[in-house]
Design brief:
Number of strands of chain A: 19
Shape of chain A: globular
Oligomer: homodimer
CATH topology of the largest domain in chain A: Quinone Oxidoreductase, Chain A, domain 1
CATH superfamily of the largest domain in chain A: Medium-chain alcohol dehydrogenases, catalytic domain
Helix content of chain A: 25-40%
Radius of gyration of chain A: 19 Å
Distance between the termini of chain A: 10 Å
Largest sheet of chain A: 7 strands, mixed
Number of helices of chain A: 12
């Protein structure tokens, strides 16, 4: 089969690999309908994460079940399924508390930018739709697999709700979908921090009421200006750098909540400033599995259209162009069709 | 009047100072009934915080109102009052949300280890009792002024409640009273981390069900052993060092809550570890004012006896001995009587 492999920073190739096989009786093999390039795939692509050996890429996927292990009972061959970047049993105490991405049996899921992929712990990881979805829903269901679920967790972690003023740091797919999530969760006012016109437009379409172009200290000052000098109730951090984390913390009022979902790279939080900021801090890898049934319902009944974040669609063979376009910020997010 | 002044690290003196006077119409002057030495007073005493000039010490107090400014209406001359280390208006949006210690008009309160002290924003800061309390309640009411309120905030920030397993890092007065708070808030199991016998005894008296003597990595391993390998639901951090913060974060299960109330000194939290820990983090200076009415009620009706943390009582003149005893860990907490 054809699969996307990262050989070194900047060196992505689509090449022939063996089709994955069932390794454990809890596995499933799926034929990938669509996959995509994630902002976090750019970390190793840009050399910010090391690449010791050629790595099969991709962890966002929707597809058709091709084969199941002996004990798999929740999904069947031929069903359309959506999963996430961590496999989880969905039964342990941590899963049951809503933190499937820290499941005690957690396994990473990879190699989604390919024709086929193996899903460990298929019963706890995959969610099947009742019927094969219409073609125009595929992109949105694919978004649910990571970026929508991650933006949603950011909003939940920031305790977004009615009456709340929300600020979102980061205008990538996750930040944009955090805006959509905040809107769905009933936020009264949503401030998008973005300096890119196309992204500002999408932010408004997803529910942003205000746009702040400034970043860093100037961005913080602007947020305070818009919130009677107090800061936002809820701030969602969707970048993962020192600057974006501090921007998020400083944009939050005392007693307010920061939900952070950007994968922290070279971030060190100064204890004394955090102490006196009085903010709540919560985040990490999103428990997408917990939200999937609800998100799938919202997509299939037409309430939300998160697939709008895909502004580039390519055949799998052109995966390298997808990486380049996102790296150069020519595309928000690239969808790949095997 | 007599007042306690820190001249340099290790150099505490009780000397003659002018009696404070009303400076703003919102001020009150109180005659201090009892004050005490705080764990945080030890930071400058030990040279961990710099001492640029002689500083009047003390921020924990109960006393009798001696004089009020022109607009003060909630407290009257002759009333017994309890306050806290930050003055707050108790009316701004931040105060109303329960974060009086980040009040938009916040002012520090100091010089409590003296015969008289000035309280800014008296109406929002002081809480009067209906009658003069009995002598045997003074120590407990004094504890409410900071260490009890701070331990209580730690428990609230860690989301302690029924069904929860709670671990407490730190066996100073705040840590011990966090145990009392956790018990009052309905925790099912309370693990005290302490290696000092007298403090372990008090921990048990306040409600601890388990004692862990180990600290650092060994302490974390022990907490995991006691919690099916998962970590505690709620961890209260009451020290404020890098080691204690990491011990708290690592002792918490994914999705669990760390409430931190030790004043962070030289603490830097590693972003990536925090991200994957999946913990909630909240803390800072305790909004003691928010809890005072409830805590005073629990003390006066005999439900709690937080004054047990005072294991040394001295006349104000001997304040220096109080500092020495706490610095050398001969005393948990020293009460001073002017």
């Amino acid at each position: 089969m054809r699969a996307t492999i990262l050989h070194a920073p900047g060196d992505v190739r689509v090449e022939e690999r063996a089709k994955p096989t069932i390794q454990n009786p809890t596995d499933a093999i799926i034929k990938v309908t669509a996959a995509c390039v994630c902002g976090s795939d750019l970390w190793p692509y840009r050399g910010a994460d090391s690449v010791a050996e050629p790595v099969p890429m991709g962890h966002e996927y929707v597809g058709i079940v091709d084969e199941v292990g002996a004990v798999v009972k929740n999904v069947k061959v031929g069903q359309f399924v959506i999963g996430s970047f961590f496999a989880s049993d969905n039964t342990c105490e941590i899963c049951q508390s809503g933190y499937q991405s820290s499941c005690v049996h957690r396994e990473g899921v990879g190699g989604a930018q390919a024709e086929y992929m193996r899903i460990p712990l298929a019963d706890g990881t995959l969610v099947a739709t009742a019927e094969l979805p219409e073609a125009n829903k595929i992109a949105s269901l694919l978004a649910a697999s990571d970026v929508l679920g991650t933006g949603w967790f950011g909003a939940v972690a920031a305790e977004v709700g009615p009456g709340k003023t929300v600020a979102v740091v980061g205008d990538g797919a996750v930040g944009l979908l955090a805006i959509l999530a905040a809107k769905q969760l009933g936020a009264t006012r949503i401030i998008a921090m973005s300096r890119h016109e196309a992204r500002q437009k999408l932010a408004r379409e997803f529910g942003a009421s205000d746009i702040v172009k400034e970043r860093g200290d100037a961005g913080v000052a602007k947020i305070r200006e818009l919130t009677d000098g107090l800061g936002a109730h809820c701030v969602i951090e969707a970048v993962g750098t020192q600057e974006s984390m501090m921007q998020a913390i400083r944009s939050t009022r005392p007693g307010g909540h920061v939900g952070y979902v950007g994968v922290s790279h070279d971030v060190d939080l100064p204890g004394l400033e955090l102490f006196f900021s009085h903010v709540h801090l919560h985040g990490g890898p999103a428990p997408v599995r917990d939200y999937l049934p609800h998100l799938i319902e919202l997509i299939l009944n037409g309430t939300i259209n998160p697939g709008l974040v895909f502004d580039l669609e390519l055949p799998l063979e052109d995966a390298a162009e997808g990486y380049r376009a996102m790296d150069e910020r020519r595309a928000i997010k690239a969808l790949l069709r095997p």
